[in-house]
Amino acid sequence: MFIYQNNGASYGEKSSTDFLLKMLKPNCLKISFPNSHYKGYNPETTYLKHNGIIVKRFCDYHDSNVIKDYLLGKSESDVVSSILDIEYYSNDFIWENAKNSLSELRKREMITDIIISDFIEENWTKIKLFHSMNHPTNLVLLEIADRILTNLGLPKLNTAERNSQKTNIQIQVILN
Prior knowledge:
Elements lengths: L1 E3 L12 H7 L6 E3 L12 E2 L2 E2 L2 E2 L7 E2 H8 L4 H9 L6 H19 L7 H7 L6 E3 L2 E2 L1 H14 L7 H6 L12
Helix pairs in contact: 2-3
């Protein structure tokens, strides 16, 4: 059995999905699940790239608003003032961003056996589901695991483990 996420060669050719799938026996059971990527909580998060390569000098993630304002020549105090404004993003923008992020995830799910977008759509405003755009919480990972188990005809994980993940939740989205 091979349970996997689709990975390109950017992690190394021998770590790519295409390479690994060729190494499997023809009768190997394969189950794919999507890379859990969701920008609903952090629409500002982006990668800074130079010649198509992610710049990781300071960190992997950057604030697109800060980059935009810097390129526009805004002062440091104006940039800080604007990004600290609680109404920086309108409600319409927040909902549209969440919708677009889910739409992108659904496109990626078209080539996977397991989907998770429905769970995210149902719960993103109730429970914190992601630490950052590429880092789901344990609750999302537990849901993916349950869906894989269901696909295999096996019982789901212990619900006490899942319920323990729902404590001390902080939602990062502010809706007016």
